[in-house]
Specification:
Length: about 350
């Protein structure tokens, strides 16, 4: 995503589904790329110890990612990370996107490294993966996550709209130009640009996907049975196209403000623009690895793994913006791209396949 300086300053005043500025000590927005650490059919949050899990995921972050992950300090278990900030050993994972050809076969859609912003050359050279944001949501003290913290956004089984209006947890944006050029528009905030469903027409420059996490915590539980109940969106609810801010007041049940996390993935659809390969009826040919052609099952998992109090210092250390924020330690791109974990369930995920893994 390419945001102008004017747009960034304006975020503090916007009542939209954008990460909001304004934490204790000043405005803070960490924005950094992470390469893929693995693509695998495991899910230590929702399906711990299950090999294989029901569907494929793309994973970024630390090399402690495994079929199960203990509720311990992940920052002390990992030895490397694929992220720009060297102290972030967290893991983030989402569903993959596949192209379904007219003949019924599937091929995984690769990701495009995000474009230059704030002189962040690291993010433009990542291998797969996506961009992560941490933002101080609104005014007041922002409390960083604790060791053992984890959460989930979205529902892998959802196939239809729930409720009225657009809920801002996830959205897609179609880039109709020949190349992915980025834009200055806020994510999940423009009814003309963003959809909860996968775009219906051709996206010559790719499809951007955004996942926004809750900004309020109950202050007690590091996890919950559904991985959602211990966190919440502001009292006004998830932002819609018409209104409320993720920087709003937290409900009494979840009074502690936590950083706004946003994941941003750019899917490189350029290799699949030949209409002769699309379904004969002209319907959109993309499907998430959950088996979902609608896009409603888009979801994001998170296991916290920042080293020591580095994230809290960053949240307290504003004003700062970008990939050189708050004097956080960074690493070179070669080190990040070399950080990998072995596949626990080897299977073909990049060639043409007759059916989706797990389907």
């Amino acid at each position: 995503m390419i945001w102008s300086a004017r747009t960034l300053v304006a975020f503090a005043a916007l009542g939209e589904a954008v990460p909001q500025f304004g934490g204790g000590g000043g405005s803070t927005m960490l924005r950094f790329g992470c390469s893929q650490v693995v693509i695998d059919r495991i899910d230590p949050l929702v399906n711990p110890d299950l090999l294989p899990s029901p569907h494929m995921h793309q994973v970024i972050g630390g090399d402690s990612f495994n079929v199960s992950m203990p509720s311990a300090d992940i920052g002390n278990l990992a030895s490397c990370t694929t992220c720009n900030f060297a102290d972030d050993f967290s893991n983030y994972w989402t569903a993959n996107l596949y192209f379904k050809a007219r003949n019924g076969s599937y091929k995984r859609v690769p990701q495009i490294p995000n474009r230059l912003l704030f002189n962040d050359k690291f993010t433009t050279q990542t291998s797969g993966g996506f961009v992560v944001y941490y933002v101080s949501p609104g005014k007041g003290k922002v409390t960083a996550f604790k060791p053992g913290f984890r959460m989930l956004v979205g529902d892998a089984t959802q196939r239809a709209k729930k409720g009225s209006g657009m809920k801002s947890q996830t959205c897609f944006r179609c880039f109709s130009g020949p190349n992915f050029g980025g834009d200055n528009a806020s994510p999940c905030a423009d009814a003309k640009l963003d959809t909860e469903t996968l775009p219906a027409g051709q996206c010559l420059g790719g499809i951007r996907s955004n996942i926004l996490y809750p900004t309020c915590w109950d202050g007690k539980n590091l996890d919950s049975p559904d991985h959602k109940s211990h966190v919440a969106y502001p009292s006004s609810g998830p932002a819609t196209f018409t209104g409320s801010s993720t920087g709003g007041d937290c409900p009494a049940s979840h009074p502690v403000k936590i950083p706004q996390i946003m994941l941003e993935i750019v899917w490189d659809t350029k290799a699949f623009n030949n209409k002769a390969d699309w379904p004969a009826d002209g319907s959109q040919p993309f499907v998430l690895s959950t088996g979902d052609p609608t896009g409603y099952s888009q979801h994001g998992d998170y296991v916290f793994g920042w080293k020591g109090d580095s994230l809290q210092k960053a949240m307290d250390g504003g004003p700062c913006t970008g990939a050189s924020c708050a004097n956080l330690k960074t690493q070179v791109i070669d080190g990040a791209n070399k950080c990998k974990v072995p596949k626990r369930f080897p299977e073909n995920y990049d060639g043409w396949i007759d059916r989706l893994p797990g389907m």
